[in-house]
Amino acid sequence: MDKIIVEGGRALKGEVAISGAKNAALPILTTSLLTEGRNTYHNVPNLKDVESIKELLAYLCADVDTEGSTVHIKAAGLCKSEAPYDLVRKMRASILVLGPLLARVGKARVSLPGGCAIGARPINLHLKGLAKLGASITLEHGYVEASADRLVGDDIYFDMPTVTGTENLMMAAVLAKGTTVLRNVAREPEIIALADVLSRMGADIEGAGSSVITINGVAGLNPVEVTVIPDRIEAGTFMAAAALTRGDVTLHQCEPEHLRAVIDKLAQVGAEVTIHGRSVRVKGPEEIASVDIKTLPYPGFPTDMQAQFMVLMSVARGLSLFTETIFENRYIHVSELRRLGADITVSGNSAMVKGVPRLSGAPVMATDLRASASLILAGLVAEGTTVINRVYHLDRGYEAIEKKMAGLGAAIRRE
Ligand code: EPU
């Protein structure tokens, strides 16, 4: 199994291009199920999770062709309407085929994703919403079985904003009869990106980016050619790495508007952040100041950046308090960071980080994507060698991370 080896102590310097967003690409690729024509998607990142969704679409008998970062998908005749356990187990975002399959073929059988390392992650709100649109839903043998002759629009309130839940409902409602109003929805940029793709396909959808989305169902949708938005979490990870190593990194092809909360925190820790259109330059401070971090739904501070900022605070001056409000178990990186010498105490959904003068390299292992990224960051500042095991988590969500880091001067290699 691959591992990544980092020799700490080098400041990251130079320029890096940000890839397409994983969490935008996954729902966007599943919109191909809503039309018979051939769709073209540009700027699709080369990631394990993207491979998994393409594999699932091919399993449903869609034609999937990849040329570099462009993917063509034609789902003319679907031969199945099932997402099997083996595919959902690999990637829980496979649940995103539920809404489009119901809308297009009136039935779907999708393995229930289990809990994962970061929390229980139920899908009750997806199911409650689809039931409100008239789907009959049963849970049998570990599968969600849903069917409906034609979905009918309704008023749906989400108990909490859910990103993939909102996406599933959007993709179901675009072909439903009548009007659907989705309330208390997620407002992430990936939701706006999905709404944009659906609109270009001919859907009538308004309000994405606000907490209420209104969709008037249409009879059919057309294929599209679209470009995936930049990955704000990959960008945020490189920004944190620049600040952490007292480096000077310019990110290109990113969308600073999507990173306001992260940029604001970086400025508070003392980094110098300059924005020029779609480029952002981050210069690390001599001494990292401590800040408190509370994760919140967008536009709040992203849970997907919490672990990376915890590394930053591990070597800051003073104390910082983390509060994780999205997932109940998203401190799995803490015990590994402690092995590198970080001083972190967890109590419930809070973590107190007391900055230490230095971390020291050691072998580590992570069980989640963003936790793995945080361990690479820790390796960049730790004295000596850090070996990160179970690299497949990283490959799920970061395109060529070690190559990009090496391009910025990090001593990092894969074995
Ligand atoms: N929730 C429910 N019931 C539901 C759905 C969600 O209780 O039916 C709860 C969750 O348990 C959680 C909260 O609502 O406590 C928010 O979860 P959400 O549904 O928004 O998460 P998600 O859609 O499963 C997406 C991203 C995650 C990201 C979260 C939060 C994708 C494919 N995944 O997950 O990304 O952390 O939103 O922003 O978009 C990652 O990329 O590493 C990653 C985990």
Describe this structure in words.
It is a single chain. The chain is an alpha/beta fold and 415 residues long. The protein folds into 2 domains: 202 residues, UDP-n-acetylglucosamine1-carboxyvinyl-transferase, Chain (Alpha-beta prism); 206 residues, Enolpyruvate transferase domain (UDP-n-acetylglucosamine1-carboxyvinyl-transferase, Chain), CATH 3.65.10.10. Helices cover 31% and strands 25% of the residues. The protein is built from 14 helices and 24 strands. The strands form 6 sheets. It has a 4-stranded mixed β-sheet with strand order 22-23-1-24. Helix 1 runs parallel beside helix 2. It binds uridine-diphosphate-2(N-acetylglucosaminyl) butyric acid. The site of uridine-diphosphate-2(N-acetylglucosaminyl) butyric acid (EPU) has 23 residues, from helix 1, helix 5, helix 6 and helix 12.
What are the main properties of this structure?
alpha/beta, UDP-n-acetylglucosamine1-carboxyvinyl-transferase, Chain, 2 domains, four-stranded mixed sheet, 24 strands, elongated, binds uridine-diphosphate-2(N-acetylglucosaminyl) butyric acid
